[in-house]
Amino acid sequence: MTRKQLVEQIFKKKSFLCVGLDPDLEKIPEHLLDTEDPIFEFNKSIIDATKDYCVAYKPNLAFYECLGIDGWNSFQKTISYIPNDCFIIADAKRGDIGNTSLYYAKTFFETYPCNAITIAPYMGSDSIQPFLSYENKWTVVLAMTSNKGARDFQFLEVNNIPIYESVVSKCLEWGNEENTMFVVGATRSSDISKIRKLAPNHFFLVPGVGAQGGSLEEVVKYGMTNECGLLVNSSRGIIYADKSENFANGAKKEALKIQSQMAVYLKRF
Amino acid sequence: MTRKQLVEQIFKKKSFLCVGLDPDLEKIPEHLLDTEDPIFEFNKSIIDATKDYCVAYKPNLAFYECLGIDGWNSFQKTISYIPNDCFIIADAKRGDIGNTSLYYAKTFFETYPCNAITIAPYMGSDSIQPFLSYENKWTVVLAMTSNKGARDFQFLEVNNIPIYESVVSKCLEWGNEENTMFVVGATRSSDISKIRKLAPNHFFLVPGVGAQGGSLEEVVKYGMTNECGLLVNSSRGIIYADKSENFANGAKKEALKIQSQMAVYLKRF
Q: What is the ipTM of this complex?
């Protein structure tokens, strides 16, 4: 999916919501556990319920990998089931030396054809560039994450510049706004504006709204551009909004609630 | 495998060699491509040929993942085939927020029972601690890697201290020498001593000897302890030493050559 197509979807659906697909056998409704593929059945219902209110899905690979072959089958079926007008982000946080990153790119852009993959930047240029060589595919680089541990290294300052800013600056040299996004946590909204200054047109993937405590209003205030420039993710807040047999309806309500707020913010353009 | 058992293996086999299992369908001998599982057949022959000369194997997940289900089956069969007295490092470079890292730990310590996993530290404490909660399992944290891009972020200095040193210092607070190792690239051997000073007893996993240009002599000079403290990895240099039908013999010769050098270094204790 190109940037233009993504922006079109956002304004058409009046939404910049990304739904995180983190299916956990210990959390999904019990009645699904008797089905042949509980993970896929769960995702299928969530997708059916939320696809009109979101523009992207973000399956988190850890939840599939831990189930072995069964999990990878569920992942495969899930990305095939997601409608073509939705953007798919493989939340895999990969990154290795050049010749290895090439194979990770192949995994998530060819074997499992997603639109984007999340990448950990610690190993630098040659760990990121192989992903950027794919046309119309997206590399979503961890810049400032939403977790507690983000403080340990990302906020260390070199000449008053935090590491996360150095990551963004370097990535701006390697890629462009048509193939690179940044993960920018909602839990540190006042810092979002720093990254927005560095990368005025890049899309940010924003986790941490909802379960992790970030505020949509703040994210919009500091991060929105005239082409939106945001994909705001909610995982647990949507998919586990209701843990009964009516879970899909609970997810739908929660997605609609967030989308309605997003529609107001998008109206200004 | 405990630290004590690993050290015993090293002195018994007179080797601290780790063989990297990076099987690539474009590089393995052509006659294997007709077999049912070329990747496993290749690994099996490499393991048979090298197991007496190495103490560890390091399958690099990218090479398996990119083949989808087939690749994960080959990975599963490979780790089952590796003899029990060899240490298995899943070179997966995972790392995510706490509740997700827990599932990555489950993947490589339970679903696919390896002894160790490599971890990218960018997301900090809660991305690493879930791995450390497993008894007799090892977390191998990327500190100073052997690739070109390592310079981009790992060598940035905060108050004259490079980021890779901050990573090591923090990990020393979270784990100990019984559950934590560090990736320390052989291509920057003079910097190995800095990390050795910080972590006098921890094991280092050292990539970059061979294909990437690092020297075994230098690694030993700056990194060896009286319990060895080193696992030196060679991937391409061993597994693709000979690309003919005699590839296993080529791998054996190369592994034996390195092991013979290692035996000399270990004699001093």
A: 0.96
